[in-house]
Design goal:
- With 78 residues, the protein is α+β, with helices and mostly antiparallel strands.
- Strand 2 and strand 3 form a beta hairpin.
- The longest helix is centred in the last third of the chain and has 19 residues.
- The relative contact order is 0.14.
């Protein structure tokens, strides 16, 4: 039986690897891609997510959560 080694240092992740990295299900990753919230590319039949797209997605989520916890003075004065 041949062991499969996954190279996590690569630039692209498949749906399952992206899900593992984000701590969500593969279905959630597919939904995020379909909604345009997570960038991906298609090579042949494979849908792949660039590592940078995962990092950008996480940064946007963190910023959105920080904004809701600590609203800026402009939105707080409304």
């Amino acid at each position: 039986m041949k062991a499969t080694v996954v190279d996590r240092s690569g630039v692209l992740r498949n749906i399952d690897e992206s899900a593992d990295e984000l701590g969500v299900s593969a279905r959630t990753v597919a939904t995020l891609i379909a909604r345009g919230e997570l960038r991906s590319i298609k090579i042949g039949r494979r849908r792949l997510v660039p590592r940078q797209a995962i990092e950008e997605f996480v940064e946007r989520q963190m910023a959105a959560q920080c904004d809701s916890v600590f609203p800026s003075e402009a939105t707080a004065s409304r």
